[in-house]
Amino acid sequence: MVEGGIIKADKVEFTECWQTIWKTPYIMRLALSAGIGGLLFGYDTGVISGALLYIREDFDVVDRKTWLQETIVSMAVAGAIVGAAVGGWANDRFGRKMSILAADVLFFAGAIVMAVAPAPWVIILGRILVGFGVGMASMTSPLYISEASPARIRGALVSSNGLLITGGQFLSYLINLAFTHAPGTWRWMLGVAGLPAVVQFVLMLSLPESPRWLYRQNREDEARAVLEKIYPSDKVEEEMNALQSSVEAEKADLEALGSNIFQRVKQAVKNDVVRRGLYAGVTVQVVQQFVGINTVMYYSPTIVQLAGFASNKTALALSLITSGLNAVGSIISMMFVDRKGRRTLMIISLFGIITCLVALSIIFFQAAAHSPLVGRVESNSYGGNSTCSAYLREQHSSSWNCMDCLKATDCAFCTNSAGKYLPGACLASTEAVKDTLRAECRAHHGTWYTNGCPTKFGVVAILLLGAYIIAYSPGMGTVPWIVNSEIYPLRYRGIGGGIAAVANWVSNLLVSETFLTLTEHLGSAGTFLLFAGFSLIGLVAIYFVVPETKGLAFEEVEKMLQKGIRSKKRKGSADASSTKDQDTQ
């Protein structure tokens, strides 16, 4: 998973979950209705990758300005940072149900604004609105599911929200592919997100508020009524007592920490155990983003085009691979995270990520070095005014290849009709002549390239992209969220997890806002090599600052952190496990 939270659940819990919801379908109704927020989260963060290809075709200013493309993509992330912050406050002030309904309104409004957008700035406004919705959904949907689920199957049901996020991303690629030939293309792609928002809004109207929130508001009778629908009658009183104890403990913790958020953060940072937990928690969240995952999730079709597949439809179809593998990886993680351990799984994942990124860098370097040459005869055959002006001014134009042509301002490459690897034409791609020359190129049985160049290495690049996702998803994709659910003392878990989540979103924003600019200045090969370097730094950081928390109780994790992160981690884990064994005996 790329962003959002996940709660671990083992195989037994999933089995028990299935048996429980079969007997009490109302539980599944609660979980799936709230889980649509996760689906919308995934859809709205994934759909822009394909829609951007067609937005560029409709708005020449977007096609020419890299920063505008990055802004359209990343404004949803910027909105999510604000939405997550507001969502935390709204959850406590107005309740989980009202927060989900508010997120649906934002999702719907953003989808409609984008669908009818007459100019790029309106698309950006719509992206900010859906970003607010994404941020609120990322905070609220898992919380509602968690509080409205029986404790024994809570992990399995909350994990389903994570699967719905990756499922929503996969769905966005399918929808993108379905609308490639529809009039309005990107408008339908972005506008369709309004439908699930309406469905969830209607479903949530008939569902109750979270029993925990009701109890905190002294609405005990309403809380009991909800619990009676979730638990057998002989368990309701027991759950009410547990709820009372939990809420009272939470209120006591809040009183001890103070109501002022800045005061609470200050106390957390001063506490040695929490500070060391933050070193680990923030590190894994930042590394998760700086391995470059969201360059793939947000720009996958563009990367496919950089690998030599010029067709928008082909780029979208091949991008389904990455999204599908990401969803599968989330399931694999649930199976192995309690067997291999958190730290071990992340380190293995990073070794695979670094290998794939270095290999991708080599492939893209070779593709650039062996791209087809530009032929003066082919270029002039479209007419003197059609040839790229930079090519005409260049004294050493005989050495130009396709990549040199695309690096020039307002230029595109048209392949030779006799073969796409033969010398082709470097043509003007200004707003005045672009559409005409593209049509002429296709009429001459050529292919029009503006991102990447024809290459025999394209298939290898796609396979490596798939391998990168396989390496990322089961480890760095999901484990950072699990680490953050275990690394902090109970009293500081909310504030610690919140700081780490903000670090994740901000890192996400930095990566998504700079990727195209990096490829423009460093090339595809240089950009992937840069992310390989970040991944190597992340591997070293995780090795030194992240302890292993597999199989440890929260109290054992706290004792381990009291000794210091740089104490012998394995010894600390072994001592904790030994203590646990002695207690058992």
From TrEMBL:
The chain crosses the membrane at residues 30-55, 67-86, 98-117, 123-145, 157-179, 185-207, 278-300, 315-337, 344-369, 457-483, 495-516, 528-546. Residues 30-550 form the Major facilitator superfamily (MFS) profile domain. It holds the Pfam family Sugar_tr. It is a multi-pass membrane protein. Residues 564-585 are annotated as: Disordered. InterPro entries: MFS_dom, MFS_sugar_transport-like, MFS_trans_sf, Myo-inositol_Transporter, Sugar/inositol_transpt, Sugar_transporter_CS. Keywords: Coiled coil, Membrane, Transmembrane, Transmembrane helix, Transport. One of its GO terms (cellular component) is membrane. One of its GO terms (molecular function) is myo-inositol:proton symporter activity. Gene3D superfamilies: MFS general substrate transporter like domains (1.20.1250.20). It is found in: Membrane. It comes from the Eukaryota. Residues 233-260 form a coiled coil. One of its GO terms (biological process) is transmembrane transport. Its main location: membrane. PROSITE patterns: MFS, SUGAR_TRANSPORT_2. SUPFAM superfamilies: MFS general substrate transporter. Belongs to the major facilitator superfamily. Sugar transporter (TC 2.A.1.1) family. This is Putative inositol transporter. It comes from Vitis vinifera.
